[in-house]
Amino acid sequence: MATAVPIVDYLVLGDDPHLIARECTGCGARFFDRRNACASCFATTFADTPVATTGELKAFTIVAFAAPGVPVPFVAGVVDCDGTSVRGNVIGVDPDPDHVALGMKVKLTTYVVGTDDDGTEAIGFGFAPLEA
Amino acid sequence: MSDDIWILGINMTKFGKHPDLDTVDLAAQAAMAALADGGVTMADMGVLAAGNLIGGGGLGQQLQKQIGQTGIPVYNVSNACATGATALRTAIMAIKAGECDMGLAVGVEKLAGAGLLGAGGTAKSDKNVYEPSGRYGAVTNTDGRIGTNNMPGTFAQIGMEYGHKYGGTSFELFAKISEKNHSHSTLNPLAAYTKKMSLEQIMGDMMIAYPNTRPMCSANCDGGAAAVVISGAKLKTLSLEQQRRAVKVSASVLTSDPWSESCQVLPDVNTLTRMASTQAYEQAGVGPADLDLVELHDCFATAELVHYDNLQLCEQGGAVDFFNSGAPWRDGTMPVNVSGGLQSKGHPIAATGIANIWEVCHHLRGEAGDRQIQGARVGLAHVIGLGSACGVHILEKSAA
User: Fold this and answer.
1) Nearest residue on chain B to A81, judged by CA atoms?
2) Could you tell me if B264 lies within 8 Å of chain A, comparing CB atoms?
3) Which of A6, A31, A34 is closest, CB to CB, to B264?
4) Is B215 helix (H, G, I), strand (E, B) or coil?
5) Per-residue pLDDT for A83 more than 70?
6) A78 touching B, CB under 8 A?
7) Which pLDDT does position B119 carry in this prediction?
8) Which end of chain B has the least Cβ crowding within 10 Å, N or C?
9) What ipTM was reported for this prediction?
């Protein structure tokens, strides 16, 4: 059985894939990267907190022209997951303005990004339209 | 008042392709012309602030070796797309601190043919062994997989976010903003592009990052700009003609982005611009209604829209209505980017934050020729660099 690793360390795999935020224990500000301190209140303690897996697309673009090696077109966006803004691609939808809309309800989903020389799969995430 | 600051001389080079001029040549051309415009020389300068982003550092001393080595302090400045404004503000701060009474600020960039900016990083091959690295513990390249890092895509989302919040935006609306700026630049002989473009041409051009097509993106080009700044006390000792042409810097403000909920997910260019404009209006003792023209940072058509709001040229949430009213056209009630803006005049990064001041000064001095905004007395110049840094300057015509 192939082993799998998440594309980024804030993606948790398993039966219920989800993202975790580093939540400041002082003010509740949420971050996705490794932290030195809180950008909002300067506190230094954080707790890993699960982020809602459904949300609303609050900004998007359809990138038609990108760096070499990045397949285009793709939909890049920001999803409001119950008050936490998350950056990600909108997937499972035709990448054109007729099929992507501001305010769209979406759900986190995972897929295989690639496999390394040891047979380990990298698992990525994106947001797919939520069935009504 | 002795702590008044004035622009004594200012210049911008032609923006466009300068294959025969290097970064130092362009800086020298702008600097020497700014000194001549002010009727002073390098011997009068007490400080030099030199802005350049891509060139590799040390521009200030290289420039001195071409136009005058006098031993004055040099500040080499790099602050993303706000580099020019930051250089200018550095010279202004030196004068305000009382360290000198005149200073030179220069911004220059060689950017023709630079292509896509912000694409960043080398793409990691997927054919090694996955190991987490960096602050997000990424095992492979994330650009294009977890959103986009490139500038057109980032600013596209910033415009779309505004549309989601307030409504009324569309591909056509953003394209119309670009149509305005490409129309304005037909009157600017120093612009990189001076051809009018129809709405159909703009919307039909190559899509870069929806809703921004190629002409809706800032034009990469070469260019330089420079300004001589002077204290009010020193200006009084100069000729009446120099005093008459001097332009008052009523406000000089630089901000960075304060933390907001999503600012580390999608850059928040709004909060720091609103802060900067609020501080600038307070410093200058004027309000948006007093402005005769505005040069704002339209790095993409989608960015111009949000800055109408951030600079408080309209009610909060009212940028779409403001644009649709015709106000920001050159014959409207609040002309915006009569130079053609970054989309058409061009955006040689570090030059932009001084070139926009030059444009405003040109009108306040009544020297803008065919594109003169008649009777202009007060103007505002704005830049923003992602990361983020925002510069706002308010300029006023001399009373003399």
Assistant:
1) B262
2) yes
3) A31
4) helix
5) yes
6) yes
7) 60
8) N
9) 0.93
